[in-house]
Amino acid sequence: MCGIIAYSGPRQAVPVCLDGLSRLEYRGYDSAGVAYVSEGAMRVVKERGKVSVLREAVSGNGAHKSRAAVAHTRWATHGEPSRVNAHPHLDASGGLAMVHNGILENYLELKTEMEAEGIRFDSQTDSEVLVKLIGRELARGLSMNEALAAALERAEGSYAITLLDRGNPERLWAVRNKSPLVLGVGEDECFLASDVTAFLAHTREVVHLDDGEVVEVNGGSWNVTRAPGRAGRRKLVELVDWDVQAARKDGHPHFMLKEILEQPKVIRDCLTGRVTADGALRLDEVEARPVPSKLTILACGTSYYAGLWGKYVIERLAKVPVEVHVASEFRYEEPVLGPGDHVLVISQSGETADTLGGLELARERGAELLGLCNVVGSSIARGVDTVLYTQAGPEISVASTKAMCSQMLMLLLMAVSHGRRNGSLAEEAERELLDGLLGLADSVEESLDTIRVQARRLAREYAHASHFLFLGRGIFFPLAMEGALKLKEISYIHAEGYPSGEMKHGPIALIDRDFPTLALAQRDRLYAKVKSNLAEVRARGGPVIALTNPGHDLDVERAWEIPSLPEPLNTFMVLPALQLFAYEAAVALGRDVDQPRNLAKSVTVE
Ligand code: M6R
Fold first, then answer.
1. What is the number of other CB atoms lying within 10 angstroms of the CB of residue 552?
2. Mean residue pLDDT across the chain
3. Which of 107-121, 123-137, 274-288, 356-370 is the least confident region?
4. Residue 518 contacts by C-beta under 8 Å, 6 or more apart in sequence?
């Protein structure tokens, strides 16, 4: 949701911010804007549309002179995407510019109060209310820190804000509450951004801010203050080990394709330091604690499907019962959870508001919290008792791909570790699995080119369909749901993932010759069952593409053969095939693959 970047230092601030915005565009892309002070005047340039439109608008606006700027790319929550609703917004004096990510929940009440005092509003946004609230306190003669404290005392909801003041044109102030914001520290310069990819080209030194902390920045100097009575950690400058290259497309037409094709590397990186060359597993973070007698998993979207997949492997290998919840539901339920219970929170970004909400509820109940995150230092990573990092590198495409691969791999390692420690997994079976894992990256790598060619051919043939069904059984049911999610979010083709055995209980009524099915029919334990389910679909005239293996005996319209691997490793071959099918369908339909309509990468609002 919305991306913030701000800069203070010796360079031309506006181009630095525009470059940062381009890297943040995956967070939101309906409008963008920048504010800077030039010749004593606050200048705000904003446009509906992508950052490229803003770039055009900024040129020749005296922008080269300023040494500090705040900029924003928006994903609308309140008020339609338009120029007037784009950020930055100004206070009533016009001297204070603010960019905001989050939702001010009580904005209507505050707006009515300020309107009664004669303050005028230009936009329909909650953000404008927040900056006018801060400006009102400044107008009463308070310092910036005092004004922030007084205004934010009244603000309910989530926010990460950054402010630029006409009277202090090289200085920035920022504060966060349940929305991501990170400080980048360079030589004589500082950056504030929603995530590190915005400034990775300039510095890898970061300071993670806690809720309620105010940071004041002036060139290379920065100072963090905390509201009285609010907890926070000692501020340390930490080094991010992601490199700039990892956040670039590397010659690929889309980030999504690059990230799908990175999966062999992701598998290798995830295993590094966790499975040794002679096949021994070391999962220190998990093994420092006893094996849980029950596990509750919380996540959203693709991470939720990874969690569902994890349930199968943990229950099979470790005999630990697992419940998996969509975090947005869980957070408002009455979960049967208490001290000593184990909760695993899965999130690529570590900033998903619903997942954070679930985490907070689990914490209130006294549960032990383990996190599976990709982004180091993210809110979820910092909010759990123990974090396991997936080491997948930056994921930029809105459609999550390589992150799921890394999450599944970590869940598999957890299952093996639990199973070994509680005696559910025989030594021989453990060795076989870990040996298989050591060869997995090579197997996937050798097959990806062929899988992509097949995916492109099939996607071009079927992309005209208005609906698609993805069928799977057992460990492939979560993958069927993920395949459907990928297809709908980037190609806008309606798709559902369903357990194949359930078709006869209703959905088979939908089947006709215009309703294709992509069936996950790997030659494993449940192959014969899936084969019968597909025969039922075929008998009703439904076209079936079966993602199967050489040697199959399926009677389907298209058999898409990929190499066989033993279960559950075969899911790591099926996953990129599904992702590539969705990708190629979206490309065939001319969709905006990396920035699909109505979506944003990390969903930091409810
Ligand atoms: O960063 P998270 O893993 O917490 O994100 C969860 C979902 O928002 C995310 O997986 C979303 O569903 C993606 N668009 C899926 O491709």
1. 17
2. 93
3. 274-288
4. 468, 469, 470, 471, 483, 544, 545, 547, 578, 581
User: What is the SS3 assignment for 126-148?
Assistant: HHHHHHHHHHHHHHCCCCHHHHH
Domains of the chain are: 3-248 (3.60.20.10), 252-438 (3.40.50.10490), 441-606 (3.40.50.10490)
Q: Is 17 a catalytic residue?
A: no
Distance CA 32, CA 74 (A): 6
Beta-strand pair 221-226/68-74 = unpaired
* pLDDT single digits (tens) 150-166: 999 999 988 999 999 99
Pocket flag, ligand 1, residue 300 (CB < 6 Å): yes
The catalytically annotated residue of 178, 258, 486, 601 is 601
pTM summary value: 0.81
- How far apart CA 23 and CA 11 sit, in angstroms, is 18
Residue tagged 């992309």 (tokens): 463
Record the tokens describing residue 371, joined without a space. Answer: 């996190």
Q: Is 350 left (phi over 0), alpha (psi -120 to 50) or beta?
A: left
Question: Is a pLDDT exceeding 90 seen at residue 140?
Answer: yes
Tokens coding 403: 């992150």
Residue 601 bears catalytic tag: yes
Q: Is the pLDDT of residue 60 over 70?
A: no
Q: Tell me the C-alpha distance between 99 and 141, whole Å.
A: 22
Sign of the CA dihedral running 70, 73, 77, 78: positive
Between 235 and 190, the more confident residue is: 190
> Distance between CA 320 and CA 305 in Å, rounded?
18
**Range with the lowest mean pLDDT among 66-70, 246-250, 370-374?**
246-250
Q: How far is the CA of 302 from the centre of ligand 1 (A)?
A: 5
